[in-house]
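Progress against Task 2.4 (sequence-to-structure conversion) is shown through the following example record, which the project officer requested during the mid-term review.
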Amino acid sequence: ARTTLYWDRWVAEPAYRVAFADGARRLDSAGIATTVVVHAAPPGSDYAARTRVYRAFGDFVAARAAELPQVEHWQLWNEQDAPGWTPVFGAGVVPLRRQGRHY
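Structure tokens generated for the chain above:
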């Protein structure tokens, strides 16, 4: 199964954290391998703060991987397949090709 973990929601909504972890455990109990796509940086995660955000993202995903060991695969961010995809990579600030380098 492929599911999405929204970083911004995880930070803001305690009920989301509980529901997400429960869903991951249920998939594992059913013998279903899980891939989790993690993206959607929290507010304040813009291009100017990208270095801090990239580090925070790494810490966030490492903590989730430790917390949810039943998840077999983690996809970081999502496919960089559309202009204006996310402010952290420079959407609306730098040309698209340069955004791809940050991705």
